[in-house]
Write a structure and sequence with these properties.
The complex is a heterodimer of chains A (110) and B (114). Chain A has 110 residues and is mostly beta strands. In chain A, 0% of the residues lie in helices and 54% in strands. Chain A is built from no helices and 11 strands. In chain A, the strands form 2 sheets. In chain A, strands 2, 4, 5, 9, 10 and 11 form a 6-stranded mixed sheet that branches. A 5-stranded antiparallel sheet of chain A has the order 1-3-8-7-6, with no helix packed on it. In chain B, 0% of the residues lie in helices and 48% in strands. Chain B is mainly beta. In chain B, strands 2, 4, 5, 6, 9, 10 and 11 form a 7-stranded mixed sheet that branches. Chain B has a 4-stranded antiparallel sheet with strand order 1-3-8-7, with no helix packed on it. In chain B, strand 4 and strand 5 form a beta hairpin. Classes of the chains: A mainly beta (110), B mainly beta (114). At the A-B interface, strand 4, strand 5 and strand 9 of A face strand 5 and strand 10 of B.
Amino acid sequence: TQLLEQSPQFLSIQEGENLTVYCNSSSVFSSLQWYRQEPGEGPVLLVTVVTGGEVKKLKRLTFQFGDARKDSSLHITAAQPGDTGLYLCAGQGGSEKLVFGKGTKLTVNP
Amino acid sequence: EAGVVQSPRYKIIEKKQPVAFWCNPISGHNTLYWYLQNLGQGPELLIRYENEEAVDDSQLPKDRFSAERLKGVDSTLKIQPAELGDSAVYLCASSRWDSPREQYFGPGTRLTVT
């Protein structure tokens, strides 16, 4: 069974601070995705990374896929209250099935 | 482009009662997924459809859960009878056949079983 562990589970920071959340596994994934979920809504896809070592940027968000395709990180620069939400990573293994981590609940205080 | 539509958004029922959730995927998306999300957890796949065929239902508790997608478009997930432990958010997602990683989620149905 492929498992994804996310850390930290909870993160509360002040507006303007930087942060990094992590997604780790002992399994290799063909791709990895990051989603953001707000209360009462479904997850919204932010990015998909496919190649080991790949780095993608989405405005103030930087996503990195580990060289061995077992882990990923999400870095947010100068966090804003609008970044508040549950950040989920999801990996795709040999099948088309997505395996989700438990998420990191981020709160950015004004 | 309209997103994935789910109804109802909220449902409260007593244990042992039946309940059904409905999902209409994004137009043109032939793959449809039902996920279960418990509080503080990530979504877990219950069943995946390719058109009207259930291609992965290994995680669906078949003693009480059933699903259908008769015409390969909208889908219904049913629980009969519901148990207290079924309280959760039920998410529907869809994707194009050639982009299985690009899953688009609906807002979910929050089920409370009392």
